[in-house]
Amino acid sequence: METLFFAIVSLVAIISAILVITCKNPINSALSLIMTFFCLATYYVMLDAPFMAAVQVMVYAGAIMVLIVFTIMLLNIRVNATQKHSHRILLGSIIGFFTLINTIVLLVKSQAAKPVGPFTGDMIRNIGHSELIGREMFTTFLLPFEITSILLLVAIVGSVILAKKNI
Amino acid sequence: MDMISIPVVNMTPILPEIFLSVLAMVLLLLNVFSPSGKKSYLAYISFIGIAATAVLVGAGWGGHIESFSGAVILDNFATFFKMIFLLAAGLTVLISDQYMEREECNHGELYPLILFTVVGMMLMASGTDLMTIFLGLEVMSVSLYVLAGFNRNNKKSNEAGLKYFLLGAFSTGFLLYGMALTYGATGTTRVYKIASVVGQMTLPSANIMLLAGMLLMMTGFAFKIAAAPFHMWTPDVYEGAPTPMTAFMSAGPKAAGFAALLRILLVALPTLQIEWSQLLWVLAVLTMTVGNITALRQDNIKRMLAYSSIAHAGYALVGLVAGNGTGTAGILFYMLSYAFMNIGAFAIIILVSKKGETNGNVMDFAGLGFKRPLLAVAMTIFLFSLAGMPPTAGFIGKFYLFSGAVQKGYIWLAVIGVLNSAASVYYYLRVMVYMYMKEPTEEFEWTQVTAPVALALIISVAGSMIPGIVPSFILEFAQQAVKLI
Amino acid sequence: MHVLTEYPILTILIFLPLAGCLLLLPVWNCRVSARPIALGVALLELALSVWLYVSRQDLPGVQTKLPGYLLSQDAPWIPSFGIRYTLGLDGISLLMVMLTAFTFCMALLVSWNSIKEKTGLFLTLMLTMEAGIMGVFLALDLALFYLFWEVMLIPMFFMIGIWGHGRKIYSTIKFFLFTMFGSLLMLLAIIFLHLLHAQQTGLATFGLHDLLKTQLPADTQLWLFAAFFLAFAIKFPLFPLHTWLPDAHTDAPTAGSVVLAGLLLKTGSYGLIRFGYPLFPQAAQALTPLFYTLALISIIYASLVAFAQEDMKRLIAYSSIGHMGYVAIGIAAWQPVALSGSILQMASHGVTTGALFCLVGMLDERAHTREIAAFGGLWGNIPKYSFFFLLFSLASLGLPGLNNFVGEFLVLTGTMKKSPLVAALAFVGIVLTLIYTVRLVQEVLFQKERQPLPLADLSLREICILAAFAAVAVWMGIHPAPLLDLVHAPVQLLTGGGL
Fold it and tell me: What percent of chain B has pLDDT over 70?
């Protein structure tokens, strides 16, 4: 049952991912991307990570994609009417195809068939995903968490410098 | 709800990072309140701050303190690399003021961004957790994306920033995927714990997930150090970015990438050494060859130095392939001397070029030998050091790296390295030929050599010559720094 | 204790020219005062080396550590690598040191008037090169030797490129890259040898006399020797690695050619004698047929090509290749008489070819051409010049009584004992040398002049230069015994059982 569900969601995810890069209208691309993110959120739920699913929808699909759609609308982005087919596409497709084959072989031969580690599904259901994330974030990963704040500062300063009209 | 135990936090390992971050934030505030156009004093403050941080970092030599439950460490390895980053940043700050004024993009945010880049790099060097290394890399990269595109008026700079951002973000994806796979295979992101888990595995090289993780992480880092075939971004980004930023990018992030790569490969995955050294062998040969051969055809000197920096990353990879004490100490020494000679060379390019990045060709160096003799002598020293001629630091670095390779039995790799070295001499000689043996075609405009730039040149020349004649001092430090492995 | 042993005379020999460079700094742009300072330093260097020679009997020698050596010096330099600052002087090095000091004095004198611009830089480059070449001849630590080997290239590169003529940039880049290529492979061989020694004995060192004790399996030895041989063969130059030489010699300024021909070529043969053969004796023996072949081809090929040259300098350049071929044969024979002849030939070739390049340079200064066709009938026109020209041409073709004869004779005699066939073929080379030298002399000196050129005869400075060369040449030709005694002991040690 779960496998069937996974297959359907994966199909939707792959199709919407392909639509992202092949759609001519940027709004269609953005909406397909939102669809992909929803599929990813479904994966998170299937992996016993409900908090991540919620955050994925809220932050990615909610905040970031909305921002992108707003930008597209404000800048009135039109798409190029003429698309030349270059030889690069052929080369890229071949490389991508081989990468795909490799990845599939990798996955098939991979040893990690069962979940390992202390964070089992039962534990997450009992204690609560948010609490577990919070625990790890403020104990094991305290330093990376703090560094993120600097990263945000740099990003803000950088985007202002690069994009503001008069500085 | 049971109590959460807050980990023991010893601030000492990240004291330099904290200091620099606070300084950067203070500079940001100062910048807001200072009139536009008068931003030079920020350069002086940041230089003093960098010098103070260097003292702070140097005081930590010989220590071994883990903190944040193993996320970050203060050891000789980290200290050595932090000094390299601070050196690169200090020299960059010295040479950037004049250039930014000339190009009319002297926004005060330049200096805080440079400082944040250094913070990111220092975290990469002292991080012992995959997450710390990753976030350090991100902080460094985002700052560099902005710095590459800093000159908003210049189309090439915009292109450089955009290209760097796109390709850098793409490579970060690889890196993170690799880290995730490694976490999946070992159950931990702490570098030392990964080592013990992998050490206890029955057949680590058969663990596909671990191998894939290692491969992807190496790919991500290969982008950062501009190893072929992941080097495509380097020439365009180096050419388009403002020259002081190119100087910084060629020295600092490369060293940071090597620091993180060394930490991960030699501390976390030493059991897989056979696998990754085979891969790195191919990478090293490709990188050296592609870098040198393409540099031979370049006319734009920034592009030429970009390709040469690719080649130099290749030489450093030879040391990593060796993986023994000599090879890794050689990488440390090489990164230090490379910072000196490369930033020095870029400083001279700044002085020779004119506003709007005209005079970026090798041809424009014509006649420099006799019109500006001191600059030409400095450039000659840098070029000979890059080519690896004795008695410069570049020679000792290459000597050490190739010794390490020969010691481990990689004779053919050393032969290829040496042949590449010989080939590279040609394009360095070309610049010297133009400087001394050709007449200038147009009138020389006198670019004033300001005191900071002069100081930067003096430091670079000293750093290129002195470790070539008496290298023992730095070599001892480098050897002690890699004893952790 | 002799006064010479109280001071680090060997270090002084190397660093005195560098100190001279510092002295030149205040008078950089003033040509009039810079030249005497540089010449003074060079003459001081010459005096030092002659003093060393004269007092060689009184030097205590360093019997215990370095048998056969007259003087040595040792100090730690880079302990992390095991590189030491080791210098040593034996008979062979002393001869080379004297040759170096003498050649540089002459080179500075010959460029007195011809270098008109950027003189300060020129003199600095000359002095730096002197220091580098001294270092090559004195170094006993392989890494130190390599350093000086590379360092002496840099000033020559600039010299040819800035003050040369013709296709100077092409020639100088070719010279530099060619030599670097060979030396880098030698560097790898040095590193490998060092690591092998460290593996076997636990002692990480680059010193020659420690490395001599390394056990080298046959095939390793062959590769290592091949790398060394390649580097030195490029410098000799041996066919087919000689292609850099005609261009470099022809396009260099006169002083550059004098130093190139007189000294730089000798560094190759010296390296082979000092390092190549002692470190890898079996491999050297195995490669002897190849060495003989290349040397013979060099002699014959170079002589034939020299005959066809129209440019005087190019002709003398090719003759250099031929003469160095004799040196090569002597070394390949590795027999006391032949080796002594080789070493003596190195010195005499330096003197003779140096003088010939000076002569061509003087003619070039006057007529602004080096074409043989432009000259003729100089014998009647400028008698003093023609006298010296004839003298050194005769020396070059090996006339008994002049210096080249001694060297060639000893080489051929010694080789005859080892390999009569090679000696016989080498005789052919002598005949060919005769042919092109006679052609040169006949067309330049005696032939009816095609266009009369107003040429001034020799000035006092030029007479001094040529007379000095001539005195040395004649003395070496008539009385070579002291020099042969000088190199006797080292040669015995090298060939008769090794150090």
Answer: 97
Q: CA torsion C296→C297→C300→C303, rounded to 10°? A: -120
- Measured between beta carbons, the chain A residues lying within 8 angstroms of B107 are 161, 167
- In A, minimum Cα distance to B134 occurs at A144
Q: Is residue A104 part of a domain?
A: no
User: What is the interface pTM, i.e. ipTM, of the complex?
Assistant: 0.90
Task: Select the more confidently predicted residue: A86 or B171.
Answer: B171
Cβ-based interface (< 8 Å): residues of C facing B: 77-81, 118, 146-147, 150-151, 154, 157-158, 161-162, 168-169, 172-173, 176-177, 180-181, 184-185, 187-188, 191-192, 194-195
Residue B1 has pLDDT above 60, yes or no: no
Whether C346 is in a domain gets the answer yes
Contacts of residue B88, defined as CB under 8 A and 6 or more positions apart, other chains included, come to B247, B248, B251, B252, B255, B339, B343
Query: Number of structural domains, chain C?
Result: 1
User: Does C447 map to a domain?
Assistant: yes
Average pLDDT over residues B307-318: 94
The whole-number average pLDDT for the span C8-34 is 85
CA dihedral C398, C400, C405, C408 (to 10 degrees): 100
Q: Is residue B8 predicted with pLDDT exceeding 80? A: no
Placement of tokens 């930014």 in the chain: B100
Q: Quick one: tokens of C481?
A: 């015994």
User: So what's the pLDDT on residue B446?
Assistant: 65
Indicate if the alpha-carbon torsion angle B403, B408, B409, B414 is positive or negative.
Answer: negative
Closest CA relative to residue C89, chosen from C486, C498, C468: C486
Q: Which domain holds residue A42?
A: 1-79
pLDDT surpassing 70 at residue C452: no
Q: Find, in chain A, the residue whose alpha carbon is nearest to that of B145.
A: A158
- The answer to whether A143 contacts B209, with C-beta atoms less than 8 Å apart, is no
Burial C42-69 (b: 16+ CB within 10 A, else e): bbbbbebbeebbeebeebeebeeebebb
Q: What is the pTM of this model?
A: 0.91
Q: HSE, CB side, 13 Å, CA atoms: give it for residue B147.
A: 30
**A98-125: average pLDDT:** 75
In a domain, C362, yes or no: yes
DSSP string, C81-132: TTEEEEEEE-HHHHHHHHHHHHHHHHHHHHTTTT--SSHHHHHHHHHHHHHH
Asked if residue A112 is part of any domain, the answer here is no
* End-to-end Cα spacing for chain B: 42
Omega cis (within 30) before C253: no
Residue A25 inside a domain? The answer is yes
**Residue showing tokens 């500075």:** C108
Residue B343 pLDDT exceeds 80: yes
Q: Which helix (H) or strand (E) holds C460?
A: helix C460-478
Q: Which amino acid is at A1?
A: M
Partner residue opposite C161 with nearest CB, options B411, B414, B433: B433
Contacts of B351 (CB under 8 A, 6+ apart): B372, B375, B447, B449, B453
Average pLDDT of span C24-43: 85
| Number of domains chain A contains | 2
The residue type found at C205 is T
Give chains near A: 3+ CB pairs under 8 A: B
pLDDT above 60 for A111:
no
Do the domain assignments include residue C262?
no
Q: Compute, in degrees rounded to 10, the torsion defined by CA atoms C171, C174, C175, C180.
A: 160
Computed over every residue of chain B, the mean pLDDT equals 90
CA separation, residue C52 to residues C11, C44, C55, C132 (Å): 13, 12, 5, 19
For B422, which of C78, C172, C184 is closest by C-beta distance? C184
Element containing residue B375 per DSSP (H, E): helix B373-387
Which of B391, B406, B425 lies nearest to residue C191, judging by beta carbons?
B406
The CATH number covering residue A1 comes to 1.20.120.1200
Domain that holds residue C485: 287-499
Task: For residue A107, tell me if it sits in a domain.
Answer: no
